[in-house]
Structure formats: structure tokens, C-alpha cells
């Protein structure tokens, strides 16, 4: 029997034009939702903030929900080490959520074409999270800069994968060098 | 180009780049940088259009964006502003609103009846007799103004962008540029929006020193990092400085709408020169002073040869100087400041011939230039809540009170030297920056994700700018003759006087009755003259008459830009590519693209009944429920009881809204001690998630339940048919799938085709032995392909929604929303046993208690129906009638031809009187004929005992 192979919902990738923000598919990342009572802080990260710990990005995406992103082993290790009380639940949503990453100096400008949030450095700094409509799809956004370069993670329902990828990629093409 | 002047120091044309174009099919040449109008005028073309109502020939009036007389057709694009749109190579330009040609327009006959075509003519004439309106409509449509819309026009690419600049500056003249620079230097992000193709405003058609200043300001703005948009307009200002910007200078995009949320808005819209009203003021050759100066200094075009200039201000004086400098004979300067004026202009149909002055003398001229004053385009200020007031000494309106986040500068607020205007702009930019900083501080303090600022919020800065003075200007609105007030709408001062005489005493009503100020320039040229003429007619002051309210848009915006990019999200399952590659006929179900069938739904049904079929049911709503209080939640949402559901068991439930109407249904399984998986209908997935969260967050926040939507986290596959167990057993090792170990309405967790953590349910919608499996979606395609591959010898095949619909109808399962509607209460479904009124509470219980009580009217009943003619399938929604009458006693809710039973089958709702098994019904078909049908004993037409299902 063939071995199971994870398949992303983004099935067709497009080339990134030179100079345009790079859009990559990070859907295979392990994603675990940690739910707790409103007001609790089981992972020490506040709502609307994200922090990296032991290779895992911990994102406060709702007042009672934290999203853990990372390699399978890293996420498992972090959860194993965490001391949660009985009211905390953890739900693996690796397969539920699409995860795209948009990186580049003009990535905020590209997002401005599909989302109404203010992505300015003051309002959406590195380590910030937000939820909004992106190209009419309810999405979570996390600013996770890479070596000082602006980078945004976008998480949305898996079934919108190819649609969202195409919509955001289209928004980036304006920033290619040739234009 | 016989009117082209020698090179001018401020010209914006590129004489090295000639451009060929056609005008009404004749070939001409202009230069890059020319507008359509300047290129045509350079080629001695004076008439550009015919007026809307009287079809009078019209020439250049303002030579800028607001010119009402130069609207042309360019290729397939109608209503192009010819005095603004830049010339392009091979442009095909033609006149509109004229037939058969611009020179010979038979509709000009309207002018002969002009005295009858006054304001209100159409309202009054064509109201009766009403029966002739269709005829009137056809005739009037032929006289409708405007260009030709080509339905085959390719759609241009439109775009949309959200922006959050600290400061938006509307207007790129000296004051606007200075404001943008000073705000940017104060650390603000600034977006400067200019309507014209060049920054600098009136400096562009001024002296060399003016242009040098404009260049310096533009360079400084770019150095300061100001984002500059030209050929763009702030079209509206809404609450909280939500600002709409139409941008037309973006590469590769026809037009895009920028939705900007600015912290402060600086309005530096400048001033718009207004025409003077006198007889013949719309003859080709009558121009405003600004038009003359733009044509000479920017486009190097001679506007005429023999000129009369009426001047009331410095701009008129400058026009005289420009004309004389380029060799135009200025036959007479009429100085309005000295009380002089003109009375009328006369000429041929194509050209001004002479000008009659107030003293009765006549001067031959082919050019009459008027400099009669200014309109302050206060639209954006009006949209901010301001009601500008009229100052008779300056002969224009000025702003009165603005909110803190809107600041006006430049000509809108006063006059002064260039230095004074720039100084006012600088202080306005500084004020805008200070106020924006306070707003930023507040936003960064309240938005938790933002970088929190240090220190207390700075107070709102008071306006301590040194104001601009108001230069005195004669009130010059109408001479002793009547003339055109609204050139776009062909409304004369006589029309306004007549409207006043008819009793229209409100300026807003006069506007709507006469249509004055309702044309494309939206009052920029006409408003003040309209108010002045009305004031004169009523013997009141302009202040007493007041003005109409300027509303968005400030400048026209295309429908394409308003639509922006079209986002239409679509959802697909992880099996979509397989479906597409395997002959799927798709159907759009909400946002989902799903397989309706794979070629032959009847054969798909037969295969499920005989062998085994698999269907992709991923859109089925799935909610992961965790916590000790989940049973409380289920008891609240469902009508039946959930407190004692054992682990590993599945139960069907029906949800009602507060009014007892069926909201949704589905099964929920208990996976662990405090862990449940709820399924909903596919169409109800989003709604039920909200419903659940609403109850938890608003009514029972104390309950410990976490709800997580996992609809697409699992690829859901129903394996149905007598061989379904055998097929699934080939892929599952760690779960005993035997009938004894895995009974109907149970759930197990196990590994399918090497994929762990799959849920397997013994349930089904088709009436066959079936297993619904939920596989982690990233491995969904793997499991589906394994089912196809490993079941080949069992005859496995995919089936689509249509086959499933047929089989569920054969089995008598109802669909919420199909067999129920917004009035269907739970008892109608026949599932009375699931309504547990002895529970403490559940959503809809009070209403259902009443509905099932003795005082309530009897509810309709859902029944299975079989037509007498087995080949006849009544359409869904066909009415059921009391025999021999037209009384409606029910309707068909679902109908299909059953391949399994070889006869038509239906579900329907009927009144209780007709619900008993064996009752004969009359069904009115869509063609109006009647047929008969019989009520069945069970909902299930097929296998009513459920032997196959429980096999």
C-alpha cells in the first residue's frame, strides 16, 4: 500500500516575479489550537501577540485561543512540557487550516490590496496577530519577520487554499521589478 | 497644427513625440502631453460637442477637468473628458450627442423650440396619457445625451487598495504641496492627491518663476517621502475620515479605488473659475481666463486671433498679458472693477463673431475671455459637516466650522501672495501632523497589537494659523441679458427665473426641477451662478437663498472602480482534483464546488444498491466539542436528550430556533469522556457554529465547552452499499468492523490505509449499509484513491450529490431547507418522538409546547407520496389541491424518479386532513394540468424496515 503523503490544499504554485513579495505555502506545519478560559494565559502570550519559543510560534489569535505553529516534534515537546489545568483543551488543526507566508519589503503593501487592516509597523509590528477578511475569506494574520524582513503568516480554512493563494499572489505581482 | 504657437517655456507637450489620431474619422497629429482638446484646437477644430438639450455647438470653455463642452467618445469609451484625457497614439476620437454629424446635427432643431423646452417640459408633457408612455420612452431614448456604450467593450482591470496614511492632502497646488511637505517632515505618512496630471495648480500656467516654485515644491515633496497620486481625486469624505480616492495613474490599472482611513484630511482644492452669464456665453470662442492661460502656457495653442477680455481680477489681467505676448490682438479689455461689462456675444453656429458691450458698442472678435470670479469647491468640507457661508465682498463662499480632523487651506479659505499661500499650507500641514499624532497615539494605545506609545496622549492642537485675507472681488453673475448657467445640462438663467416664478422657492427644489448643477461637473462651475440668479429672481441675497448640499462623489468615478477587484471565494475539498480528472459534472453549493454526478446518476444509484459507492461529503459541517459541559450544550440545542450518550455511540438530533422552526439536523458522536464531534448539514455549517457560540458566549459563558470548527480538517467520505464493509475492512486493521462489534449508530477511531486518527461512523443517508469516514484532510486523497484501487474487484465507483439525493428520497430522509422551510416546526417532520418536552429547557421548547397543545392550529405533516402515473415526476413545489377545488392543501417538497423502484417518488407537506396513508391527492402540475397521487404509509419508499441499513 502506498504511504500516506500530506497534500496541501494549494495544488498549483506560481513563480514569484523578481522584486515582488514571495508567497509560500507552509500548510504542512503542525498547528495546534490551545483553548482556555477567557482571561487565562496558559502559554504566557497575550491575545494579539505572538512569540517564538523552542522553535514553536505561539500566537494569541483570540482571547481564549492560542495557535501553536511549528514542526510536529517541537510542538509536541512544547505541549508535553506545558502544565495546563483541566480546563485547557488542545485540538490539532493541522489539517483544518491553510498556512501561507508572505515575505518581502512590500508585503504589507500587497496585503493592503486584499485586507483592510493597517499593516504599518506601528500598528502591526513584528509579533502582532490579527483577524480580518482577506479577499473575503475570514483569516488570521501573524507578523513573523525573518531576519528583519517583513513576513506575514496567513491562516484560513483549508478549503479556500487555492483561491486565497491565487488572490494574494495576484496582489503581489504589482510590486515586481518590471512594473 | 496651424494654431500651435512657438515653444513656450512652460509647455508640457513633447514636440519630439508626435501622435497621430483621428477626430470624426479625419486624421490629425498632436504631441505627447497634449489633451485631446488642446490637440484638436491646435488643429483649428473649435467645435467639440453639441449641447445636451438644444444641441448647440460647443467649444472649449475651461480647458481642464471640469470643461463641460469637450466630452467625447474615444473608441468604445463614451463620455471621455477631452480637456483632461491625454492624447495617445492612434486614438479614435469622435463627437457624441450629434446626428448625423457634429457639423450637421438635425437634433439642433430642438433649439427652434427652445422656448417650449424650458425646465419641467418633459415632466409636464409626457405624464399623460399614461398608456402612451412606452411610445414616449422609445422616442425620448433617441434624444438621450451621451456617448455610445459598446456591449462588447473589453473590461479593463480595476483594482482596490486599503490605505492608512496619517495625512491625506486633497489638492496639489502650492498650499497643498506645502502642507504635504510640512506634515511629512513632521514624521507623518502623507498621501497627496491631485486631480490634474501635473502638480503645482495654477503655478503651472503662470510665470517662469511660478513654475520654478512648483518644481521646487514637487521635488521637496518627493524628498520628504510624500506618496503622490496625480490624475486622481478624493471623491468622498465620510465619518471618521474614511476617504475614497479614485486613482487613475496606477500602472496597468484603468482605475482603482483607494479606501483610505486618514488621521487628518487637508483640503486644498483651490478655486474653480466660474463663467459669466450673458446671451451667447456658450458660443465656441467664449472661454474663461484660466482656459486661455492653460492653452497658451501649457499646450502652446493660440486660443483665437482677435480677443475681447472681460476681467474682474488678476487672472484676467494675466490672460491679457499672455494673449498679447503670443501675438493675439486684444481688441478690448472690459474692466469689471471699473463697472464695465459686456451684454451679449453673437456669431455663427461655429464661431463667435462679435461682442456687444454694456454701452451698446460692438467689437468684432473670435475670442471672448471672461474672468468673472471663483467658486470655492467646498464639497469635501460639506461632506465633513461644514455649511460654507457667502461673503459678498469677496463674491464667494468660505468654510465656517470644521471637525478637528479636517483642515482647509489655500484658495478655499482666502487669498494672498504665493508666499502667503505657501506659508498657510505649511502651518496647515504642521497642524494636520500634530492632530494626526494625537489620533495615532490614541490608536496605538487602544489597539492591543500595536506598539504602545510612551507618555500621555497629546492634546488636540488649537488652530493658531495666521489666516489668509479675502481679496475684494466684484459680484459678477449675470449681465443685462440671459445666458447659459449650466452648460452640461443646458439650463439657462431664464429657466431658473421661470422656476422661481412657478413657485420653486427652495434652491434644492430648483436644482431638481431644472437639473441645474446636476451634470458631470456637479456644480463646480454652476452652483454660485445658479444661486445668484435665483436670488435675483426672488429679490433675496445669496446668503438667504443658500446653496445645495454637495455630496459624494466630488468627481465622477467609474462603476468599474467602485466594483474594484471581484473576489468570489470558492471552496473545494481535498478530492477536487480527482473529481475534475474523473468526469465530474460540478454543481455550486453555496461556496462549494461539488460533484453533482460523474456522467450517469442513475447508474451510480444502481451501483450503490448492488455493489459499493463512495461519495465526497467533506462540506458536511463538523464541530469539535470539548469540555465537561458538552451534554448541557447538546441538551440545549437539540430537541432530544443527550445526557447519557455512551462513548462510542452516535445519536441523531434535530435543532430548532426559538420559534420551534427546524433549524438544522445531524448526528453527534461521543469520542471520549469530554470529547464529542457534532455534524451539521453542509449548508448549515457556518450558521450552526455561530448559533452554538451565541448560546455559549451570551447565555452560558460559565459552561466549560470549547467549540472548534473542523469541517475541512477532515475529508469526509461515505462508503455505501452491500459491499461497503468488505471494502473498508481491506483498509482498516485496528478496528473490528463486523456487524456485531460495530453496530449501527456507533463511532470508532482508527487507521485507514495507513492514516491514523480517522473517525468511522456507522451511519448513512442512502439507506444502504454504509460507513462515513472522516480522514485528516491532508491524507484525504490518499484514502480515496486507496478505496478506488482496493475496491476495484468489488465494483466500487464514485457517486455524486444527485445519486445521493435520489437514494435519500427513496429512503424517505428529509433535508432541512428542502422538505422544511422557514415555517416548518419540528412536529411536521414526523419525528415527534425526538421532541422531549420533559427536558428542563431547549431552544424552541416554549413554542413547541404551545404548538403541540390543544389551542394551537394543527401543523402540516410531511408525508411520502407516490403519483398514480409511475412515470410522472411532479416538479418540486407543485401544489397539492383539495379535489375539485383550487384550495391549496399542501405541496411537493422533493421528487425524483427512483431507479431502484422504477417509479416516481415524492415527499410533500400536507394538511393533517390529507396525511393518512392511502389518501388520494390532487397535484397541480406546472403546465396547469392535474394528476393524482397517493399518500404512503412510511416516509421510506425503499426498505422501510431498514434491513439493508442495519446489515
Description:
The complex is a heterodimer of chains A (179) and B (951). By secondary structure, chain A is of the alpha+beta class. Helices cover 15% and strands 32% of the residues of chain A. Chain A has one domain (22-175): 2-Layer Sandwich (Gyrase A, domain 2), CATH 3.30.1360. Chain A has a 5-stranded antiparallel β-sheet. In chain A, strands 3-4-5-2-6 form a 5-stranded antiparallel β-sheet, with helices on one face. By secondary structure, chain B is α+β, with helices and mostly antiparallel strands. A 6-stranded mixed β-sheet of chain B has the order 39-40-41-38-32-42. Chain B has a 6-stranded antiparallel β-barrel with strand order 43-46-45-44-47-48. In chain B, strands 2-1-7-5-6 form a 5-stranded mixed β-sheet. In chain B, strand 47 and strand 48 form a beta hairpin. In chain B, helix 4 (174-185) packs across helix 9 (418-446) and helix 6 runs parallel beside helix 7. Chain B is elongated. The mean pLDDT of chain B is 94. The chains are: A alpha+beta (179), B alpha+beta (951). At the A-B interface, helix 3 of A face strand 8, helix 9, strand 37 and helix 20 of B.
